[in-house]
Amino acid sequence: MKTQGLLISVFIATAGTLVHAAPASIEDSIASRASRDGIALSVIDSAPTILTAIANTYREQGVEYQPAGRRRSAKPVVRRGIGNIFDVHSHAEPDWYRAITPFTGGNSGTSTGGGFPTPQWNVSTHLEFMDTIGISHSVLGFTGPSANAYLGDKERTVALARFINEQLAAFARTYPDTFSFFASIPLPYVEESIAELKYAVNELGAVGIALMSNHEGHYLGYDLFTPFWKALDGLGGRQIVYVHPTTPYLKVNDQWIPADPYAEMDQSRMEFYMETARTFMDLTVKQTIHNFTNTHFVLPHVGGAFPVMIDRVLKTVDTSLYEASLDIYRTRFWWDSASPTYFHQINGLLAYDIPKGNLLYGTDFPFINTAVTAADFESIMAYPGLTDQEKEDLLSNNYKALFGDKLHFS
Predict the structure, then answer these.
(1) What per-residue confidence (pLDDT) applies to 115?
(2) Phi and psi for 126 in degrees, rounded to 5?
(3) Which pLDDT tens digit goes with each residue over 126-147?
(4) Which of 20, 123, 282, 309 is surrounded by the fewest CB atoms within 10 Å?
(5) What per-residue string of b and e applies to 165-198 under the rule 16 or more CB within 10 Å gives b?
(6) How confident is the prediction for the chain on average, in pLDDT?
(7) Which pTM value belongs to this model?
(8) Do the beta carbons of residue 134 and residue 82 sit within 8 Å?
(9) What's the CA gap between 257 and 274, in Å, rounded?
(10) What is 144-180 written as a DSSP string?
């Protein structure tokens, strides 16, 4: 009886503690979900700072942290003009991430990684930029290296991907009419990438995923990535993969060496275009794009150097893939305008009879500043190869066909 009484007393005391316990903090909630998924966030030294930054994103806007994903709504985009442009290519670069990777495309173990200094960024400056250009909604993603800041370190790569996705979800939840996001994926670690994919899409509400052109030197058609593509394609419905170029690396004697054949210019200006060509040609010749037909791709910078390589490679390496590949490029590939692409570059893409309904607007902010973006915008408006209606659709309508019910249009 004494034992029974003791157990009851303990139960009552415990119950009383639970009743009066304060709700878990946002930081604790994020850490708890990571722990549930086998992710040790503490392997990143700045984890407490990052958790506080994410939590403050919610607190500053008075928004609760909600673990269950909800589809975000976008403002109606019905005409060209101020407040009605949809930006499919823009970046979040919070202070905590810039501290980890101060150079775009670089990693924490190198001085530059061949990249460009990561610019200052915050939500306020992004909103000011959007107002200046006339953008109503931006899809945010992290640029290179994204989660691959710690080359060869699985635990920290996985932890960083979770931090990135929690931060992006915080921006999207606190500004639901203004931001949605592409989730970071910790490839080349396939099992962990599948788990993060499901968490980001099903629980955080990502509208798609952002992959780098290579992950630790492996391009996206890499055979060992097949289970990931199968898992993505099998989620049901259309899946959207945005691909961003990053620094190419070679592993030599267990050292990661940036492949930098033209060191006189930072890689984001030239080599990133080549990276886009490499990875999409890899996806083509490995037939990844042919085998997983629910997946659509957003190509940055109207495809970079990829369009000029299509005939050269497919007409000489494997002609049997030519027509089937062109059909995919015209249906499941979407081409964003980020950077100065409509002065002349766009002509090379349209020569492949790419439907103008698959052209999207992107800015690359904050890596392309307001003045350059304004000039790029004017080049689209002046481009003779598009009618006024096609320009309006590029800016304000074509994205609806891509995203469908992933966004609400009110």
Answers:
(1) 62
(2) -65, -45
(3) 999 999 999 999 999 999 999 9
(4) 20
(5) bbbbbbbbbbbbebbbbbbbbbbbbbebbbbbbe
(6) 89
(7) 0.90
(8) yes
(9) 17
(10) TTTTTTSTT-HHHHHHHHHHHHHHHHHHHHHSTTTEE
